[in-house]
Each structure stands twice: as C-alpha cells, then as structure tokens.
C-alpha cells in the first residue's frame, strides 16, 4: 500500500460565512479588528462571542454602542442526528437582536437558520452555514459588504399581472392594455 492509500480520510469542516455591514463603516472603522477573507478555526467546545470587549470576545466590533458581549454562537450537534447547527444567543441587556423576523431579548436564544440576516442597531450581518463533518472544530469566514444587506436581498414588490392582460398600472400612459386570448375562446 502507498502512503496515499494509508492516509486518513479528510473531513469537511462546517463553515459559518458572515457578511458584515454598517452604514458608517467607512468613517468609524468599527470592523477594523475583524479578520476578513481568511477562514479561522474555532474549537467545537468554545463559544464564538461578538462584541466590544476584546478580553472576552474574539470578534471585536469597535463601537461604543455595541455591548461588551453583543451575541454568542454555540456550535452543537442535534440529538440523535449527524447534523451540526449553531445556536445564537443575545447577550446584550440594552439591544434586541433580530434573526430574520425573530426578535431576541436578553439571554434569548434560537437555532441559527442555514441562511439568515442578523440585525442589531444599524448592524446587518448575513450568516450562511456551509455544512461539514468535523466534530472537533468549525470555521468562520468573515466578509465585508459594500451595500446594505437588507437592501441587496430585498427585491422590489411587483404587482401581479392578471391572466387576462397586463396591469394598466405598468403603462399608465397607454389607454388600452393588450389582452391575451386563449385559442379555444371566441
């Protein structure tokens, strides 16, 4: 047998991709302590903490309006399953944390959806989980957004077009809209 054949099988690693946005990031540089575009390993038994206090939090946000610990993420495996998940907990007494449309008060926690938007104050974070198999650690991969995440992800609401033609509100200058007629109709 060759050394290639005897080598251990490589495990894939769960990776949490997080894209950060704040409207004043260019002026205030609140993300200057985050390590963007490089994956970082976090041990599975450690909690990933985000906040202002660099003695407690590995992911520091340089903003006095951010709590010492804003929120934490715990990596875990579901009971009787091989599926890995993250649990997000609001650690701020003053600021509510919104995960998609769910509002979390102090010490409230929920499972992090595989793709969601986390908001607090003017902060917007797009979180996406890339599944893996490793039980020893997970990775974080941080990105910086140039435009608001909520604006980028929301499509303008379009009025439905009726089956019998085009909505007249789309062409207000035209008096009559074209009408589609089924070939079986007379």
From TrEMBL:
Give GO terms for biological process: innate immune response; positive regulation of canonical NF-kappaB signal transduction
Q: Does the keyword Cytoplasm apply?
A: yes
Q: Write out the annotated subcellular location.
A: Cytoplasm
Q: Domain FHA spans what residues?
A: 49-121
Keyword rRNA-binding in record: no
Q: What Pfam families would the database entry show?
A: FHA
Q: What's in the GO CC field? A: cytoplasm
Where does the source fall among the domains of life? Eukaryota
Disordered as annotated region, ranges: 166-186
Polar residues bias spans? 166-176
Please state the protein's primary subcellular location: cytoplasm
Record's keyword terms, sorted: Cytoplasm, Immunity, Innate immunity
SUPFAM superfamilies per UniProt: SMAD/FHA domain
What PANTHER family does the entry give?
A: TRAF-INTERACTING PROTEIN WITH FHA DOMAIN-CONTAINING PROTEIN A, TRAF-INTERACTING PROTEIN WITH FHA DOMAIN-CONTAINING PROTEIN A FAMILY MEMBER
- Into which family does the record put it? Belongs to the TIFA family.
By what name is this protein known?
TRAF-interacting protein with FHA domain-containing protein A
Write the gene name: Tifa
